[in-house]
Automatic annotation (TrEMBL):
Biological source species: Raphanus sativus (Radish)
Upper taxonomic lineage: Eukaryota, Viridiplantae, Streptophyta, Embryophyta, Tracheophyta
Keywords: Glycosyltransferase, Golgi apparatus, Manganese, Membrane, Signal-anchor, Transferase, Transmembrane, Transmembrane helix
Molecular functions (GO terms): hydroxyproline O-galactosyltransferase activity
Top-level EC class: transferase
Membrane association type: Single-pass type II membrane protein
Gene that this sequence comes from: LOC108822637
Protein name: Hexosyltransferase
Amino acid sequence: MESLPTTVSSKSDRRGRSSKSQNNSKPSLIMAFFSCLAWLYVAGRLWQDSQHRVALNTVLQKNYELRPKALTVDDKLMVLGCKDLERRIVETEMELAQAKSQGYLKNQKSVSSSSSGKKLLAVIGVYTGFGSHLKRNKFRGSWMPRDDALKKLEERGVVIRFVIGRSANRGDSLDRKIDQENLATKDFLILENHEEALEELPKKVKFFYSAAVQNWDAEFYVKVDDNVDLDLEGLIGLLESRRGQDGAYIGCMKSGDVVTQEGSQWYEPEWWKFGDDKSYFRHATGSLVILSKNLAQYININSGLLKTYAFDDTTIGSWMIGVQATYIDDNRLCCSGTIQEKVCSMA
């Protein structure tokens, strides 16, 4: 009977321990739960930080690729070398232009001189057109030599050619007639790149001087209109007296008012470029113009840049303003004048 309390007491102890263990497990579960939450939070932050680092690294890489590169000593030397090369190219181009102006043309086809090997005295270009066959024959029967006489004149150092361009319809009957006539007479200078037309006369002068310089080596290059009769021996004497004179721009010099009224004879469409006084600068009349070789060479070299006006005489005069040309006003070249010593007259 005495052992019963002990048994009862033992059972109550077990119940007490059981309740204590249950009480102790609840906080542990709560702590474990919060530990899991903390671990998930930390893991999430670490993953988020890694993503940010990847994005930041990508941005930095792009910026690094786009940043201005620091020039090394070699880079600077290369830049300086390029600038020096550019300077030398400019200097060489200027020297080349100067050499060309003095008659040294690279890749130029060989030019003709007299049979004695001397430089020709003059190349005389007589303007002509498709409808001027009778006028050409008239010249050939008067002051202009033909056949063997033309060759003998060339041996003296004077070349004479009729100057004409090509038809707008290249290869048509107009061109064929000129080719046939030239085959028989051999006294034409045909400007292959020029279209023969009245409105194209100012451009024709560029093609003439360029072609003449490229084909013949002469002291002077003479442009003559097809309404002019020449005293050939008188002209040759005049040119002989000027032989060796560089920069010579020779002719019957004049100036005058610029015609601003559209539809009037001698109308200049670009009259406003000639100033408030509307007056032409000094220039040789278009009937007969003589240029020394270096001036004709200048036209040849710069033909693509030279501006043309409505008339060929003022066009040539505008080119001469910008170069070291010596203006020689010789009244013997005033074809419409009345002096007896003149070397030309209106036909």
